[in-house]
Specification:
The structure holds 2 protein chains of 2 kinds. Chain A is mainly alpha-helical. Helix content of chain A is 67%, strand content 4%. The longest helix of chain B has 16 residues. Helices cover 34% and strands 26% of the residues of chain B. The chains are: A mainly alpha, B alpha/beta.
Chain lengths: 377, 523
Amino acid sequence: MTTKPSLFAQYRSGARFRLRMEPRLEQPGWLGLIVSLGAVTFALVLGGIVLMLVGGDPIRAYAFMAKAAFGGIGVFSDTLVKATPLILVSLAAVVAFRMRLWNIGAEGQFYLGAFGASLVVLTPLLPPETSPWLMIPAMMVMGMLAGALWGFIPGYLKAKYNVNEIISTLMMNYIAVAWNNYFIFDVWSEGGFQMSRQFPKTAWLPRLTDYAAQVPMFRGLTIHLGFVIALIAAGVVWWIMYRSRWGYEIRLIGDNPRAARYAGINIVRNTILVMMLSGALAGLGGMLEISGVVHRLQGAISSGYGFTGIIIAWLAKLNPILVVPISILFGGLLLAGREIQPSGIPMLIQGIILVCLIGSDFLFRNRIRLVQIGQEA
Amino acid sequence: MDDHLNVVELRGITKQFPGVLANDQVDFTLRSGEIHALLGENGAGKSTLVNILTGLYRPDEGTIRVDGEVVDLRSPRDAINYGIGMVHQHFMLVPTQTVTENILLGLDEPRFNMNLSHYDQIITDLGEQYGLQVDPRARIWQLSVGEQQRVEILKMLYRGAKVLIMDEPTAVLAPQEIKELFATLRSMIAEGKSIIFISHKLDEVMAIADRITVLRKGKLSAEGLLTKEMTKQDLAREMVGRDVLFRLNKVEQTPGNTVLAVEGLKALNNKGLQALRGLSLHVAAGEIVGVAGVAGNGQTELAEAITGLRPISEGKVVVHGQVLIEGGMSGQRRSRHVRQVIDAGVSHVPEDRTHVGTAPNLSITDNLIMKGYRQPPIARGWSIDSISANTRAESLREDYDIIVPTIDTPARLLSGGNLQRLILAREISCEPKLMIAMQPTRGLDVGAIESVQRLLLQQRENGAAILLISEELEELISLSDRIYVIYEGEIMGEVMESDPETLGLMMTGTRQEDLVETRKVSQ
């Protein structure tokens, strides 16, 4: 650097180094992709070490997991089935988080959505012989309304009385599960089992395998119309966020509520509406799951989808379109978890990937330089 | 010992931050017993230089000498051990504790048993020695801003500072308090201290400094100029690198109809205390009306009340004969009042550019459509026409000289002057009938101030009514057609042509009527 005699000359002969971190001034688009890919690679290496420690062959294990999730049209169809509810709960989180409303109640809203859809079939609001053209939309509407209601309550409390939505939405998850349990254990219980009777076919979302008679290669493909609905929902959420006046208000409130107030935006009303939209999306997820996969109301319809959705929303950097591929990846991991023994391993790898991805955000925002001691800036 | 002993000597200081060369081979010499002003625009590197001198940053290159010895300053504690103390622009005091407690904070002595009365006496004596009277037993929140500043200075003197760095010390003071501060600084010099005085206000520097060093864009522009040989014009040229017009051309014009009438406004501040006590004023088309006052006398609340952001308990705000805000309106529908005010053609340049005026992570475009996204052509039904939004953003960027790579750049990457031009672009482009401008040039450098003031005068010529709330007397006097003086939520009086002296007296609570009285008596 300099040849002038310096105060720090004494250190120079020793050439000691240290790491220094400084914030990046620019964050080019490609950087996010590279950092994320790097983090996943790092996580897979870490996971591989764990696999070796328990006596496994990491390469074979990974190959098996990849095959179990993406190795053929059949399993890929199953992966997409898993991804469907994930996309919707993640969108629910994206919408709320954009406004810095920490709705962690997507799980409960998902359950309530399933309950709302079941009301149509099991009460029954519509007779079983109703045309699917009416039955399915009715179930969707009821599912979304029930989810929206479950979002409205904490939204209203937050907007009017400043009740912390993290606590209220978390608590409402337990109420939702207990509520559903009451119905499947008692009101709608089928012969004492903890599940309702199976829905009539008119309440089933069409699957590819249903058309196996006409197209033989569809045989066994369980992917249902819900996946398409989820893709449409992602598109709609994107449009709302980036092309509508409402979405502009949401983004402005989320980034700077004081600026939003200054621009004359109604924060109270938007808080309630956004919580309702978030709840409705999660509720739609619940409806699609029971109408497309389970075909009845039962316990354990979600394996923590609501919480996985929070993570996916975060990894997608609250981008509704990015939610789709990430949900598919997570769907694959869920599926591989079912296929592999012991099934704890994919969960473990999923956890490592998450921690690495979240940690990598630091590298995205900062850069690390190696500097010689004494010359540090 | 010779008279010109150098207490502090910085040689070839270079400091690189990511993307910015904050200091580039800067030299600075502080002689014993002088007040040496460090002058420069925002971002010229003044703060970096003194942060190096107080041990907060370490230079990439260069040497620091204190009393002729090369020193290695690693922390503010090192700096104070060498007798270098800094009085920050924003005070670092604990409001609920007493003056003595604040001064002793962080020191090794006293230990467990505080024996405060003993230290109270020491601090009283120290204060008397330097003309810094302040009650050692008073709690900080009970003190005026000027007194709090004295506590900060005492804190450094108590720690044995012989070099005091004053970072923009006058920014928060009223004219009279500035006089007192200057007297204090002189008495400290007489007691053998040396002072580095950081400022971007030319008048003050001319008034107090013995010598002046000017920084421009991280480089030394002029070192150790003797104040008595300099003019304001010379200094401005050194700071900006070109000639600066101090008096902008103000066209003579007669004001039109009354646009804004504020009647008997009463409102509370955020702490629930009465901030506005029945305040009335009016502004006509084609005139700039100034509101002068020391910070915290209700200016913020006034701007917020007029724009509908703050509920008022009594009074009303009338724009073009239409009552927009009235006392006792429900607070539930606040956002609707704000929208009504915006729709009535009132624009608002808020005091706080970063926390109120803009959204940091949204793009330039999104920030520019903040007020206009509800109207066509940007609004198209429920959606936002992104093409016309971008077109508008591009043309505003051209017209208002907002320097950004693209209109998709997030607003947080803009400098202060650019951010203010963005806000002005947004607030002026909607062709307002009335403009509430709060501190529009605060913290901007000379060049940017000139461009902002030019924009305000242009609005005046276009027939807009402008209420200019500012703490800069110079600016108020040169831009305004009339000036109201606000003190503790009341208008002390209204003056047409004025001198800082009269305004200063009114700003500290003398009513205009009484002012005339005292004059008569003295004659």
